## 1
Amino acid sequence: WPIPRYVPDTPGWRALMERRFQQLESTVRSNHERYNIFLATMTSAILAQNFTENGWGLTRCPEVLRRELVEALHEGIRSDPPEEHDVDVIEKFGDAAAPLFIHKPQLNRKVLRTLKSMHEEWAGVPLVEEVSYGLRVYRNNSNLLMHVDKSVTHVISSILHIDHSADSEPWPIVIEDLQGNTNEVVLKSGDMLFYESSKCLHGRPR
């Protein structure tokens, strides 16, 4: 210590990670919490390999798949889907409603198969399919806290924005890139955000 080399060792990423370790030292009091955050930060800073220059990118999903997902989403909402609870990184305020979750296992598998080659092209390496969670419907006064994903299961990931209500306000994804910049990305229906999810801190914090 100090860490001799970050991955990637760009000036911006090094500065960002050094600030993160300083924040950890000065603000986190619980030993248990400090340990968990330290491990996640070490993984992001030096242990997880990077595959792209910036750590995230934006594209469009195939239109046929977008239409199928929009139809599945609206059909699922009409079917009174269950609320999603006990997700550590989702925060809701006061009596705000929890997100809804629409389970479509067969559709999830189709999405994984259909989009695999796009993820491989973006990352530049062959990939092993891991998981497609399903359709999550956020409602008013929910936040997705800033976090990195677990590197055992999440390396190259994407968020596919299916649809939103006509009267909703833009709800940007915030993501830190490998040059040390913080970016806000507003997605439209069919937009797909690729990202290196165990390296780049991301969320929807407001």
## 2
Amino acid sequence: MRPRSDFDGNELIRFLRRLNLAPGHFVVLGSGPMWARGLRDRLNDLDIVAKGPAWRTAEWSPGGATLVSGPLSNEPMVCFLDGRIEIASTWVTDEHCVDELIESADDIHGIPFARLDHVLESKLTLNRKKDQGDISILKEELNRRPLALAGC
């Protein structure tokens, strides 16, 4: 992994910081954790799971938010920047424990990003064509280093 020199210059990261979500109550998932660790060159969107005060902040934010139903869960989801930032209260399936995802997140430049094993698990669950490249990269990266696995 290579550290990012462009982290705080990214428009999505700047917007996320301005939302000022409550620490310990949200985590960035999807491909964001790969980008933050230098495993992807571009950050096209941010997928975030939030609970409690972080969810309420997102839900009531005046920053151009749109409230929609999540495509997989039908649960409420808040979208910003024309859907480039999506904040949900659940993740992929019920088997993904939101508390575990948040509590086990890695702090990168002050933002909680999901562990790579959790990212891989969710991409395998979705198993979309667009995720296949990420799945290969994640498997290779996770095979290169020891990992303490924890369940929900």
## 3
Amino acid sequence: MVTKIKHTFLLPVKLNHATLYPFVEAVLKGLSKRPNSILFDFSRLEGLQVGGVTVICNLMELISRMGIKVSFYAAEWCRAAEFVERSGLLALSSKELTPPRTCRAFLPIKLVEYNRSHGYVHNELVPWLAANLQCDPRALATLRVCFEEVFNNIRDHSSIEVGCSAAHFDASTGKITICVSDFGVGIPGRVRIKYETTSDHAAIELACKEGFTTQSTPGNMGAGLHILIRNVVERNSGKIVITSGNGIYTCVPSGVSEQGSKRSGRNATATYPGTLIRAQLDIRDFVPDVVEHEEFIWE
């Protein structure tokens, strides 16, 4: 007789940076018992951020690869139901549901394979950003390169060569949040192959320095994180938060009269089994690239 084991995981009232890591840790601990099915219970959920959407997507991908059935309860009627639906998370629960269309507020969640990541950035992420920043897509060439480099790191840090990406524009605050996450070795694990560090956040700090590289993948020279911080934080007064392993690394602008970024690292409340990158831009502070218009001359 085969015993069927079903595990139910109750999402917290607010799934944000403070509650995300203990939730992930609890799910992974439950998976170690090899249940037949997993149920995510949304009944208490009142608040959801785009980072939580990408992480749940990663969890579902991992669970599916283990041959375990995953389902949702109350996702369509909880207090955060609109965010769950419009972010694309609800559609992941059933093949019968149609994924939502891209709109001004949401670039819905998507599983992005490494070998298709440049197409995703160029054809989906950049046009969506351009619409919200009200600029020519060509004026986002620098940001495009930044996120292409971030996806390059997926192959370096993840064991399954696939990441999850989603973005949200909050019109009430004028802020755009872009999240990319993956499960795998993580930044600290990759850094420690070549360098000794005292903590996971120290390893992330090292990975963010200019010129740093593990060179574990041809063509991935480790410039992605440094360039991302320089362009999102130092140039556009945005914010970067990187979580990997037991470390959290935050980069914010230094101040009005200073250039550069203020960086700080700390220990996470639980282990994150991969890398989660959250980039935030304020549309009021964004500085687009200068687009040189070619003059057409009749001969």
## 4
Amino acid sequence: MILAHLGGEVERLSAVADETIYPMLTTFGERANDADVMSDAELRDAFVGKLEPLQDALLFMDQVRAVVCNLFTQLTVVYSTFAAYTPYQTVRLAWSFDMLGRALAIGVGIDEVVRNNRALRSALMNFKRVVLLLRANPEQFGMNEVDVVSLDSAVAIIENQLLSSSFFASVLTQLTETEQPDRFIKELAGTTLELLESTTARLNTDSERLNDKRTLLSCLCLTMLHSGLVPDIADRKLCMKAWEVYKVCVLVSVTTTVSVCPGAILEAHLSPAARECFPDNGLESVISFRRETLETLDETFPAKLLDLLSASVAWLTKFTATPNVSHSLSSTMNARTSLFQEGMRLVNRLRHYTQEIIHLHVSLEAPVTKRRVRLIARAVEMLQAMCEAFTQNLNLSLEVQHVLKFLADRIHRMMVRLKRF
């Protein structure tokens, strides 16, 4: 019950990060013209309006840390030597381990967004300028020395805890500081390997699930956690399976707009013993694989994009057509639900593949040919068409009418039965 509650809390925090924290940190500090020098008045206005969201982000990070530590503690207790927990040790807790990995992945996402937003640094420098202005003449702004010191401290905390891009590493260190039961460590490795194998087997196929790429990042985070718990004893099979993720997925999604490179994050956070399981050339093999992928794009990109576009067109045709209304409410709604899920899977696959193509060109500083630009444009146009189909929801009125008719019929039957009595 506790694990279920904490898993629900992880899902809630993930939703908050997707809808609020990531978008705010991605665009924070952006200006129409970065070359323009801000006046003192503009600096003060920006300071008042922008400091609070960053403080909210720090509070959110504290919530994530608390949930991660709590969930980690609950899982370790289950596999402890206490006799009361022995019956639970045979229960499959893969979902709870996955939730622990997803909670850690929130930290990865925050660090990645902050690292990619260069405007955050300049915004912090502007904050420091404002503090100097306030310290020079606090009475003019209705403040005293204590208020200025408090603001200065807030800016310093933001710089140390947020802009250092070390949130994930700090949480990982906190979890690995204490010794844990061998049974828990063994279960962590086994469950992570099982999740990795099943997820990678489904990737880029018709059986791929909506959350598979997030589960993939969760598994990478759990692999790094395992290597931190036993830094001198690496699980070679788990480490190699995690390392080979780059062969099936150039980018691993944190959210729709934030992705990380699997090889780079493993190289940065795995223990030295775990990194010894990798090939001698390490990241060079990843870069070499990317170059080979980029060189063969003219053959692979059109073919794969054609498959995705054909499937998307077929889905659009079915989704925008008049639904077949049966006498069974469950049959009608189940068919529409399956259609929604199929569309979301196609959107995720098409968007992620397009992001990978763009990332390959950006990371390798390769020019984009006109042909590839046209192909990317076709993918974007299809994504836009599918988005419009989802938002307009053309047949919602028909579905609602069917539901109302079904309910009215059931109520009528109930009333007829009551009249007999």
